[in-house]
Amino acid sequence: MESAQQEAILKGWEAMAPGFGCSDLPARLDPLARCKIYTSLAFERLQRKEDDLNELFERSAQNWQQTLYLMLLRTVGDLQNREAFMALGERVTLQSLMRERHSLVGVEALLFGGAGLLEGCRDDAYIRQLREEFEHLRHKYCIEPLDPGIWRINRLRPANHPRLRLAQIAALVMQPDFSIEKILECRTREAVEHLFAVEAQQYWSSYYNPSGAIDHTAKRLGHEKAHSLGINLVAVLQYFYGHRMGREELTRRAIELWEALPAEQNRYTRLWERITPMNAFESQALLQLAREYCERTRCRQCPLAKHRLYELKREMERTNRSR
Question: What's the CA angle centered on 294, arms 291 and 295, to 5 degrees?
Fold first, then answer.
């Protein structure tokens, strides 16, 4: 294929805003080529996540337990509150929570008080208890609460409300299985589901918004959220730890865990025509393709586009030889 023809095809793809002009291409690949491209994209995604995790590791003074905690806060909430959760994790550290682990009241007081989310609550006996406990603990650990205005709660799904997520985090921190060692041991979908099978305490079973709104949303971390944590926390931490500590079996385990977990269902995985990812490994590959190439109109660097141009070149060569 002449370079001018390649350039015309690339410009055509680039012109198809917002950059998804080749949404049918993955389905048109033969299985071997698709597997090769998926593998390349999945490892690219792991590398990007590893870079993000390395930043968290340094922010945690290379403390593995604090890194795990920050990853949990980063992953468990919604995107628009990610920075608020991260700010909370640096003010209310895992070390302080572990010191109060003997008391759920102490753990919830630290999390809700540090988040500034005891402000504006209705006045009942339990909220008063949390406020009193936090007043003691904030001086003990030198904690300055976050400004409540940092939290974005408009148009949030009830299951993603920060107060509910904090109650679930408190329940998770109270579990003896919440440790870097248990994360590294995870090998299967069932192990991930067991690790994150926690439920906010009974107080939150009637409502999670103490300003007065009553709600009966399930207070348990569901399987879908557990799978998301398995994909974005457990597997990524295993991969990073394996590289950092020279333990190749953990990097392999991370890939195997992605292959064992269900594929994500979101707007990015639904972009592609006539193809459904079989597992999280494939959906992460398609997510990498959509986010890093299609959305950024990087057709010239895209492995899928390169493969398609190569196929077109071979087809033209066969056609010319047959004339």
Answer: 60
For residue 301, which amino acid is it?
A: Q
pLDDT tens over the chain, length 323 residues: 556 666 766 666 666 645 556 788 888 888 899 999 999 999 999 999 999 999 999 999 999 999 999 999 999 988 899 999 999 999 999 999 999 999 999 999 999 999 999 987 778 899 999 999 999 999 999 999 999 999 998 877 877 889 989 999 999 999 988 899 999 999 999 999 999 999 888 887 665 555 555 455 568 888 999 999 999 999 999 999 999 999 999 999 999 999 999 999 888 888 887 888 999 999 999 999 999 998 888 888 889 888 888 777 776 767 667 76
Strand partners, 220: 199
Q: How far apart are CA 186 and CA 227, in angstroms?
A: 12
Going by C-beta distance under 8 Å and a sequence separation of 6 or more, which residues neighbour residue 283?
263, 264, 269, 277
Tell the burial category of 141 from Cβ atoms under 10 Å away from its Cβ (0-12, 13-18, 19+).
middle
In this structure, the chain runs to a length of: 323
Neighbours of 319 (CB within 10 A): 9
Place of tokens 């959220």: 225
d(CA 144, CA 137): 11
pTM of the model as a whole:
0.88
- Rounded CA separation 41/282 (Å): 9
